[in-house]
UniProtKB/TrEMBL annotation, chain A:
Segment forming the signal sequence: 1-28
Name under which the protein is recorded: Cytochrome c1
Subcellular location per the Swiss-Prot or TrEMBL entry: Membrane
Cytochrome c domain residues: 54-214
Keyword Manganese: no
Species assigned in the record: Roseospira navarrensis
Note accompanying the cofactor annotation: Binds 1 heme c group covalently per subunit.
Automatic annotation (TrEMBL), chain B:
Name listed for the protein in its UniProt record: Cytochrome b
Stretches assigned to the Cytochrome b/b6 N-terminal region profile domain: 13-224
Residues holding heme b b562: H96, H197
One MF annotation (Gene Ontology) recorded for this entry: quinol-cytochrome-c reductase activity
Residues that coordinate or bind a ubiquinone: H216
UniProt cofactor note: Binds 2 heme groups non-covalently.
Keyword Iron attributed: yes
Classification via PROSITE patterns: CYTB_CTER (PS51003), CYTB_NTER (PS51002)
């Protein structure tokens, strides 16, 4: 028992120091001048979370009509769209609406052909140099791992989509009176440094959802973020489903092992 | 306890083999009847857990290596392919990623258990020293492995850590070029890191074998620190400890699987999912959690060479722990003052872990220096002095006497 007391004391001392320092540190860093990340409800959170196929298809709609013209989805193929509820024929149709380069043919020439479901998503730019030229010197990042590649994940993407302001807010100037938005950049409350190269993209009513959902900016941000989460973690539903079985199995097994261990040890203590 | 007679095998095949290569007799002796102190508590579970974590890492690692491409332009994409296209690739990779954290967690508990119960004292100095060596190779292996995904943190961690050798006088710069296989961290660095990351786990495996050999020669220490004296002090390893270890493994797997299946990237840095870019330095370069205490020590010294030396000394000092601890009493259980200093050291270690994750500025720098100072003060000053000043409590005459005394206390209560 006294060992437990000492562990508890050490833990309390460590936790106390850590928490105390954390508070001091947060103040020292002058943290929290910007708004905290928006935290909407996500269907894929938690142990029982999963994707909402309807929402993913709406998200694809936003991606296809808004993001796709500048951003690639590396590592993904048109066939992957079957996972979010498109039929084989629909996927063929979607793929065929894109042109990809193939070849060389028997005359040694490269040629363009309609994409098939087995093709990777078409890239908006032939190379980084052209991408930079078209986007003010910055290559628009690949979006297929974005939900894993930023602290805050989905919350960050959602907040960023809705974080544009027409004017530099007061709280920025209070913190840094000399803040000036460089030419060609937009102000985004959630982007590190606030000056983002991508202009605001989502405005109410820029597209129509096939399922008739009202295309508000929030709705589109929510849908496209869910789509990007799926693009980053297409295994999420399989992973959690398997995980639930594995955990239940392990809990039962471990309980049995504990009982069996007690049985074996009952005369040995 | 010493020479348990080999069983007389009745199966003819086993008999034939055993006459020529006594593998069955050896397993019987070392895994079944092996006399183990009867009073080992749950802190003794973490050694076997570490061994199992190593096996999990080696097995998942072999499968990952079948699909991974060690090339600066393809490494990142090959891992995305493992995650998306390879059947259960995501599972294998997430187990590999998270089992590293499990491995380090159980090894830290294992090391601190050894420190509390004086498991490094005679005649177990070599057993302890081999253990410290295992930890050192683990650190190297984990670092090399973290570079392989070729994300931003991979690249910059490799740059920061390999650049440490430039602090070595005279040969430092040449040494760095030799390590990199070029003039900076690049494709050749990645390829050799992959080769070494595949090699070192087998070196660890060999060291674990030596560790177990030394263990089975000196036998396990135990919470009283009193050596085994008579058969009543021990229990056969099977079924007593096989079952206790199996239960412990069940608990460890629950924790591991919780992270693997539900929070697989919890211990990872998000920015490592951005492909390495030598032109863009991340805002904060932070190592994985299990390196943080030593990273804090590295940064506590304003001088680069001094920091590197101190960081290695922080681990190397464990080698001479048997010399630094002058107390005749082995187990911390009977050392009333040592106990408190032990838990203070644990708190200091946790504090260093926290400080390692914080930016090197303001109060964190000052605290880092104090915490580092105390870390060494514990080993170099407190431990040697305690042996002289501390009056240990009476030690039980034998393990079985201690166990029986416990029962009488329970009965009285």
């Amino acid at each position: 028992m006294s060992t437990l007391t000492r562990i508890a004391t050490a833990a309390a001392v460590a936790a106390g120091l850590t928490l105390g320092l954390g508070a001091v540190g947060a103040q020292a860093a002058g943290g929290g001048e910007g708004p905290g990340l928006k935290r909407p409800y996500w269907s894929f959170e938690g142990v029982f979370g999963g994707y909402d196929e309807q929402q993913l298809r709406r998200g694809w709609e936003v991606y296809a009509q808004v993001c796709k013209s500048c951003h690639v989805l590396d590592y993904m193929h048109y066939r992957n769209l079957e996972q979010i509820g498109f039929t084989e024929d629909e996927v063929k149709e979607i793929a065929a609406s894109f042109e990809v380069e193939d070849g060389p043919d028997e005359w040694g020439e490269m040629f363009m052909r309609p994409a098939t479901p087995m093709d990777e998503f078409a890239k908006p730019y032939e190379n980084d140099a052209i991408a930079k030229l078209a986007n003010g010197g910055v290559v628009p990042p690949n979006l297929s791992v974005m939900a894993r590649a930023r602290d805050g994940g989905a919350d960050y993407i959602y907040s960023l989509m809705l974080g544009y302001r027409d004017e530099v807010p007061e709280w920025v100037l209070e913190h840094d009176p000399n803040f000036e938005l460089p030419a060609g950049k937009s102000f985004n409350a959630y982007f590190p440094g606030y000056a983002i190269s991508m202009p605001q993209q989502l405005f109410e009513g820029i597209l129509e959802y096939p399922d008739g959902t009202e295309p508000s900016a929030e709705q589109m941000a929510h849908d496209v973020t869910a789509f990007l989460q799926w693009a980053a973690e297409p295994e999420l539903e399989d992973r959690k489903a398997l995980g639930r079985y594995v955990l239940v199995f392990l809990l039962v097994l471990t309980a049995l092992l504990y009982a069996y261990k007690r049985e074996i040890w009952k005369d040995a203590h | 306890m010493s020479s348990t007679p080999s069983p007389v095998w009745s199966n003819r095949t086993i008999k034939w083999v055993d006459r020529r290569l006594p593998i069955f007799s050896m397993m019987h002796k070392e895994l079944i009847v092996y006399p183990t102190p009867r009073n080992l508590n749950y802190w003794w579970n973490f050694g076997s857990l570490a061994g199992i974590a190593l096996v999990i890492l080696i097995l998942t690692g072999i499968f990952l290596a079948m699909f991974y491409t060690p090339h600066e332009d393809m490494a990142f994409a090959s891992i995305e392919r493992i995650m998306r296209e390879v059947n259960f690739g995501w599972l294998i990779r997430f187990i590999h990623m998270n089992a590293v954290s499990l491995f380090f967690l159980v090894v830290y508990i294992h090391i601190f258990r050894g420190m509390y119960y004086g498991s490094y004292k005679a005649p177990r100095e070599l057993l302890w020293g081999i253990g410290v060596l295992i930890y050192l190779v683990m650190v190297g292996t984990a670092f090399l492995g973290y570079v392989l995904p070729w994300g931003q943190m991979s690249f910059w961690a490799a740059t920061v850590i390999t650049s440490l050798v430039t602090a070595i006088p005279v040969v430092g710069n040449d040494l760095a070029i030799w390590l990199w296989g070029g003039f900076s961290v690049d494709n050749d660095t990645l390829k050799r890191f992959f080769a070494l990351h595949y090699l070192l786990p087998f070196v660890i495996f060999a060291l674990v074998f030596l560790h177990l050999w030394a263990l089975h020669t000196t036998k396990s220490n135990n919470p009283t620190g009193v050596e085994v004296k008579k058969p009543a002090d021990t229990l056969p390893f099977h079924p007593y400890y096989t079952m206790k270890d199996a239960f412990g493994l069940g608990v460890a797997l629950i924790v591991l699987c919780f992270f693997v299946f539900f929070y697989p990237n919890y211990f990872n840095h998000a920015i490592n999912y951005v492909q390495a870019d030598p032109m863009v330095t991340p805002e904060h370069i932070v190592p994985e959690w299990y390196f943080l205490p030593f990273y804090a020590i590295l940064r506590a010294v304003p001088d680069k060479l001094g920091g590197v030396v101190l960081m290695f000394l922080a681990i190397a000092i464990w080698f001479i722990l048997p010399l630094l601890d002058t107390s005749k009493t082995r187990s911390g259980r009977f050392r009333p003052i040592f106990k408190w200093f032990f838990w203070l050291l644990v708190a200091d270690f946790v504090l260093l872990t926290y400080l390692g994750a914080m930016p090197a500025e303001g109060i964190y720098v000052t605290l880092g220096m104090w915490a580092t100072g105390y870390y060494f003060f514990h080993f170099v000053v407190i431990l040697p002095l305690l042996g002289w000043f501390e009056k240990p409590l009476p030690v039980p005459e034998s393990i079985s006497a201690a166990v029986t005394a416990g029962h009488e206390k329970e009965a009285a209560a």
